[in-house]
Amino acid sequence: MKFLIDTHTFLWFVSGSVELSQVAREHIENGYHDIYISIASLWEISIKSAIGRLPILGEYETVIDDVIDNEIEILPINFSHTLTQYKLPFYHRDPFDRIIVSQAIIENMNLISCDTIFDVYLENRSIKRIW
User: Fold this and answer.
1) Mind listing the pLDDT tens digit for each residue in 69-122?
2) 14 and 56 in contact (C-beta within 8 Å)?
3) 57 pLDDT exceeds 90?
4) Hey, which of 38, 55, 64, 90 has its CA 20 to 30 A from 46?
5) How many CA atoms does the CB half-sphere of 21 hold within 13 Å?
6) Number of compact structural domains in the chain
7) Distance CA 25, CA 19 (A)
8) At a CB cut-off of 8 Å and minimum separation 6, what does 115 contact?
9) pTM recorded for the entire structure
10) Name one Pfam family in it (predicted).
């Protein structure tokens, strides 16, 4: 199975945070699952850590090591992702979250996130939010 992890999910996973649910951790650590992170998440981390709004372990340059060490694939953004985002209702205005949920929809990936606002976007779809 393929799963897309939200930004906070990735950060909590690599830092060993107790904020990450046990269910989320088990899905990410399951060797039979393909785990993806959006390039939008890496962009979000770079912006927010650069302006001091997001503390991360180490320097931003080391984030890629966490991605590689945990065998997480980076999902690029393509036009179909942006088109889906364009058509989404504005339940959520955060551009990073909107593109992440759009990618989950287009790529047919369950989304690992504690953010319940995603549920309204995934309602009546074959994918779901895992937490």
Assistant:
1) 999 999 999 999 999 999 999 988 899 999 999 999 999 999 999 999 999 999
2) no
3) no
4) 90
5) 12
6) 1
7) 10
8) 6, 8, 97, 129
9) 0.93
10) PIN
